[in-house]
Amino acid sequence: MFAPQRWGLSPDFSRELPERLHHFWRRYYECFKTKTRNTGEYADHYLSCLLRMETKRNYTNIGRAAGVAGENIQHFMSNSPWSARVVMEQVQQEIKTTPELKRGGMVTLDESADEKAGDKSAGAGRQHNGRLGKVDMSQVGTLLAYANLTYSNRPVWAWVDGELYLQEHWFTSEMAELRQRVGIPPERKFETKIELGWKMIQRVKANGLPFVSSQ
Questions:
Q1: CA 27 to chain CA centroid, nearest Å
Q2: Other CB atoms closer than 10 Å to residue 68's CB: what's the count?
Q3: What is the extent of the structural domain holding 209?
Q4: Whole-angstrom Cα distance, residue 26 to residue 180?
Q5: What residues pair up with 129 in beta bridges, in sequence order?
Q6: Distance from first CA to last CA of the chain, Å, rounded?
Q7: Total domains present in the chain
Q8: Per-residue confidence of the chain (215 residues) as pLDDT tens digits?
Q9: Residues 44 and 93 in one domain
Q10: CB atoms within 10 A of CB 75
Q11: DSSP β-bridge partners for residue 157
Q12: 126 and 101 in one domain?
């Protein structure tokens, strides 16, 4: 990441990246509105630091690097009621309205796991973690990605939908208090990863995203 030529980026293009990132953030700024304010400034801090920091990308260190309180970054990511669905729908809308992406697009269903220290985070449990290559305490997301390689000089990849996978034991009566505490919507019910994926494919198709599917 810190050797741009390795990824095929020219020196001139590399120098443009900060400004391009800022324009990218501005396009999505309005997605982070809540009933009382717009917290979009923290999206800029969070994304910028994830890309700039080499290690220890936790909320405290991100806040320190950005010059803001780490607690504010954590609240923005964990508690602020902005809608992730609104962000993903704007990504889909931009794909739909880009003329050169009218054909050649595909979606791929996959999962991504993060190692967790304990079982109190939403969806955490002992399950397969592909990054570690073993069963461990992890949090797993089922993700739908869009790719279009029609124009080799401008390939496009984007995450267009996603759902947190919740193992079946998360829906037992014993877990009711923890479900509420970590913010799992009461209407959620157990669904397999395939069922979650099929729901996402149907959702982006209904939104008019042009694609063929692949798993």
A1: 17
A2: 17
A3: 84-214
A4: 33
A5: 134
A6: 27
A7: 2
A8: 556 666 677 777 778 888 888 999 999 999 999 988 999 999 999 999 998 888 888 999 999 999 999 999 999 998 899 999 999 999 999 999 999 999 999 999 999 999 999 999 999 999 999 989 999 999 999 999 999 998 877 889 999 999 999 999 999 999 999 999 998 999 999 999 999 999 999 999 999 999 975 55
A9: no
A10: 14
A11: 147
A12: yes
d(CA 28, CA 23): 9
Task: Report pTM.
Answer: 0.83
SS3 content of the chain, % helix, strand, coil (to 5): 45, 20, 35
**One-character DSSP codes across 93-153:** HHHHT-GGGSSSEEEEEEEEEEE-SSS-STT-EEEEETTTTEEEEEEEEEEEEEEE-SSTT
Tell me which residue of 59, 48, 1, 2 sits closest to 23, measured CA to CA.
48
Instruction: Specify whether the CB–CB gap between 39 and 80 falls below 8 A.
Output: yes
Residue carrying the six token digits 């991504």: 112
Residue type, 25: W
- Tokens (6 digits) for 125: 């449990």
Q: Is residue 147 domain-shared with residue 62, that is, in the same domain?
A: no
Residues 67 and 44 grouped into a single domain: yes
- Residues 6 or more apart whose CB falls under 8 angstroms from that of 178 comprise 120
92 and 195 together in one domain = yes
Residues near 215 by Cβ (< 8 Å), separated by ≥ 6? 108, 109, 197
